[in-house]
Amino acid sequence: MKIIVSHKDPDFDSFASSIAAKRLYPDFEVVLSGTPNKNLKEFLEIHSEFFSYLLESQIDESETIDEIIIVDTSSKERLGDKIGKLVEKAKKITVFDHHPETKLKSIKAHDFIVKEIGATTTILVKEVMEKHLKIKNIEATLFAIGIYEDTGNFIYSSTTPEDLKIAAWLLENGANLTLINDFVSLELTHEQQELLSELLNNLKAFSLNEISIYLAVAEREKYIGGVGFITSKLLELTGYDAVFSVVRMGRRVYVVGRGTSDELDIGKAMEEIGGGGHRKAGSAAFKDIEINDVIEKLINSLRRNLIPVLRARDIMSSPVRTVLSNMTVEEVNKIMDVTGHNGLPVIEGNRLVGIVVKRDVVKALKHNLNNAPVKSIMSTNLVVVSPDIPVSEIRKLMVEKGVGRVPVIENGILIGIITKTDIIRSLHNVEVKELPAKITTHEEKLKSYDITSKMKNQLSKDIFNLLRLLGNVGDELKMPVYLVGGFVRDLLLDVENYDIDIVVEGNAIDYAHKLEEYFNVRVIEHEKFGTAIVIFKDYDLRVDVATARIEYYEAPAELPKVELSTIKKDLYRRDFSINAMAVKLNPSEFGKLLDFFGCREDLENGIIRVLYNLSFVEDPTRILRAVRFEQRYNFRIEERTQELLKNAVENGYIEKVTGQRLREEFEKLLDEPDPLKAIRRLAEFNVIIHMFPKTYYTKTMDEKLERMFNFSSIVDREISENLNKFYAVMYIFLEYYTDRDLMEVKERYGLSGRYIKEMKELWKVAQIIPEFFGKGMKFSDIYKVVGKRSLEGYYYLASYMKEEQQKIFNEYIRKVGKTSLIQVNGKLLIDKYGFKPGEDIKRILEEIYCAKLDGVVNDQNEEEYLKMIINK
Fold this sequence. Notes:
By secondary structure, the chain is α/β, with parallel strands linked by helices. 46% of the residues lie in helices and 16% in strands. The strands form six sheets. An eight-stranded mixed sheet has the order 18-25-24-19-20-23-22-21, sandwiched between helices. Strands 3-2-1-4-5-6 form a six-stranded parallel sheet. The chain has a six-stranded mixed sheet with strand order 7-8-9-10-12-11, with helices on both faces.
């Protein structure tokens, strides 16, 4: 026997999940334990005839259970007694749950599918949708109720975009909003209102690690449903960060928690005391235990499940861009224009003395105070914070004091600054953990290494000498010159790379033109960005030159410190630590590798790590780049960077990037030696669904991509080299798109209309390929079905073929590529044989072309074959 079960006393999400699972696994039986909650019970009284299920009491404990699917719970303790015993004997167990960070205790599950999402129903219905299974209207309604109820009509913080997408799909497939409204509880009954009133009167506050938690206690002789909904109302009415209801009903004590704070994991706390839930919602139940003992268990569990508070040092910008107090108003205005900052800290004698804002600078310029020192217009009414103050306190401080930026001071030294933008961005971090110092403090000591001998041994003599000369030119201009980026990374990895990037502490364009005096070069200026491209004609080499921003000061100090600070800031803006090292090229320090952030260690350990928490928010294309580098070098994205990446994806930052930039980064990823590994990794991070909203990465899609990429090993190299991998992948990614969805993707990513037209044609052809293709087929037979297509179209069709079929198909592609009509064409048929333009000409030309594909006709006897056709 195979059964689907859920927790005792099922609610809509657990029952809907069970029915959805049965749609996916029709040979299983749904078994309910305990008493359905009130709303579900009323629903089943009316609609039970539409759903097949058994009660736990109908199951024999001696029954042999081959497989069990458990939905909406990961705890054996929440199962019915009889079901719990059957679980111990089951040969295979699969779990579907949406309660994060839970583990099956004493149950050995073969498959454990847990997703941090609003409802378990969402997880299972998504599979139903992806498998194109048909559902009845009443099933769509049930599934929708399960999602609506467990997401609080999509306002609970656990709600995800996926819940909304699946709900929309259910509405499209017959879900009845009137029925949904009838059974999703929105109003409190009289008994529930009385319980809410008592809980409000009994609210007590206590503090855990700076978090205020409120506890409400009540007692009833009989059971009243909806304590979860009542607790949500309690949270809504009070506005507190976290509220817990502890209610005794008869011999049982029910505990329900709801919260809005990111600093407390309610679900995990509830799991520890025998219940479960989400990070911000959870519950547990006890039998024959004193209510005070339950409260003690709850508080102890809450203490253990506090999440580290997000503090100033976690979100501050560092190093700080500052200005000197004796700088002129005009100089400061130029810095603000270049950087886009509307406020900058002012330094005098190594002390923070004020903040100057753009508004005051503009006013000063209007009054012709261009040359006045900035200290004359700066604000000295400073509001500063320590690095350990919680972000929640900083938010309040900014509102109370009416300031837009707050300096962070430690031991009297300015170490960071926080703006309103930083505060807003911090709200996207769902979970905050203690971060390694190298990510949050940016106070790494400079590590330097002499790698001159490595450069000499690994680089060609021409390149090595060129780098020395580039440093010499820097000395002549009194500019520090650095080799940076991927060239340095690959140099240390012993990988050949001739993409040379140079950073100078000075004017990059002036430096580039200075090279014209010594080399045969062409300079391409990008004045807007302060960069230049230098083409070395004698070396057939391109060098990119950029300016390090020397006008920003970490603190006024001696020149060497300012120099290091400048290159440090330039490197700090890089995407990943492995790309954030520099090699000095000036003669006195030639070959000196500068490592401020533990980058070389990451390179040696094979780690992809961002340098600051907002890296993916500021440039979401780095998400694709992280995966590309990870797969190229067989590295791994470290845990915290993965968390930041996932947060950026989940919070919709990919959607904010232009299609052109995403396409460019995706194309680079596809050019890697094993693009399928990278695509799978993107799918793992949910990147693909955010780039292509109707593309669901399934096992079937993965198999097609694998066959398509494997086709390159069969196709002639001179042919496969011309493949546009982006379009080839699009044929598979967009396979089931509607015309409307297809046009949206076409506009976003600039897809060719010709390819779109061919896609639509081949999507129909592909369905018959597996059965149609076989040995002994003539090329003309294939041509009549497939025709002559783009290389990308051929690759798409190959994704439906087995290896032997692909070999035949490769011969066909080769033959079609070399075959054309030499003697016969439409003009000959009209001029010499008197045909009129139309379908007859097309038919005759195709007949001759097919005969030529099959070797019946050659270049010399095309016209003879034509005469034979005419004389039939």
